[in-house]
């Protein structure tokens, strides 16, 4: 200890539940939420509707291509010529990596590099899926493309270019997919978030459909229209123009995804920290454990004790860099060297702390696989 683990039995339950909820839409796996080649392969092999990966950097996409993965979509734009060149060279050798763009400058940069290497690079347009209400930007700051009028010049520029091709459209409705609306002891806020989500959902469906129709009017047949996330499957699947939904966090089901009223997946991944001292009868100090999730700073980004049931962090120390005190008053007798099992607030970030994942089935360790870190990779 500390060690990270994936419960294969629970993972398989989540895989089947997600496949059922998508109701015929294809599922693209976001690699940032999984960060293990072996786990990616396991999920892709589980259901024919699971196709393609959304990567987070160019080097990662090229690495996954070298591991035999196809249909790789960069979820974020890249600019540096060396990164685009790496994708161009990989595609020239038979890989299938699509670049994300949301500006004329990015299209021109991709065209220059693709021409230099004598290839045609596939492009996906990233459209903004946030909503603006009085005094509130509901969503994340991603693309500047919100309207058909803003998208039109990019379509025409791509069509006028000889070494890039428009193959996809993506819009990530993060305020629906990633914002909990069943947070304990926050009833008023939960009701407000649900109301905002419903208002936003209706607006976004119209926006996405209009842009898809605009693209079709130029005679372009898109390979895919991507949307959604773990928390928006139920709404994104209703949009006729969407061909695939990006789902990742639901497979591991980290702590932040306990706070949605429409679904509940089971915790499939976590880590164990070792009790190394006992400063009081109900307090156990463990080694390490302070694996804090990214995003806005707050208590929700702390990991949470999972087992034994009833264990909790102390309010003034929380999860620490080299030690974590755990308060426990339950019936189990805990000893030095025993584990406290923890859940990370987010999904794939846990893998950045560990080189291996222990695979558990029927309560026993049956195998171990590497994370990106265990493969010697660090992409961002």
Helix content: 25-40%
Total number of helical segments?
A: 10
Distance between the termini: 26 Å
**Average of pLDDT:** 94
Which stretches of 5+ consecutive residues score pLDDT under 50? none
**Overall number of strands:** 19
Written as H for each helix and E for each strand, in order along the chain, the element string is: EHEHEHEHEHEEEHEHHEHEHEEEEEEEE
Outline, from the CA principal axes?
A: globular
List keywords for this structure.
single chain; about 375 residues; alpha/beta; nine-stranded mixed β-sheet; eight-stranded parallel beta barrel; 10 helices; 19 strands; about 30% helix; globular
Give a nutshell description of this structure.
With 380 residues, the chain is an alpha/beta fold. It has helices at 8-21, 37-46, 58-66, 81-92, 104-117, 148-159, 174-177, 187-217, 233-236, 249-252, and strands spanning 3-7, 26-30, 50-55, 72-74, 97-101, 121-126, 131-133, 136-138, 164-171, 224-227, 244-246, 269-280, 283-287, 304-307, 312-313, 323-327, 339-343, 356-361, 364-370.
Describe the secondary-structure layout.
Elements: E1 3-7, H1 8-21, E2 26-30, H2 37-46, E3 50-55, H3 58-66, E4 72-74, H4 81-92, E5 97-101, H5 104-117, E6 121-126, E7 131-133, E8 136-138, H6 148-159, E9 164-171, H7 174-177, H8 187-217, E10 224-227, H9 233-236, E11 244-246, H10 249-252, E12 269-280, E13 283-287, E14 304-307, E15 312-313, E16 323-327, E17 339-343, E18 356-361, E19 364-370
Parallel strand pairs: 1-18, 2-3, 2-11, 3-4, 4-5, 5-6, 6-9, 9-10, 10-11
Antiparallel strand pairs: 1-12, 7-8, 12-13, 12-17, 13-16, 14-17, 15-16, 18-19
Helix pairs in contact: 3-4, 4-5, 6-8
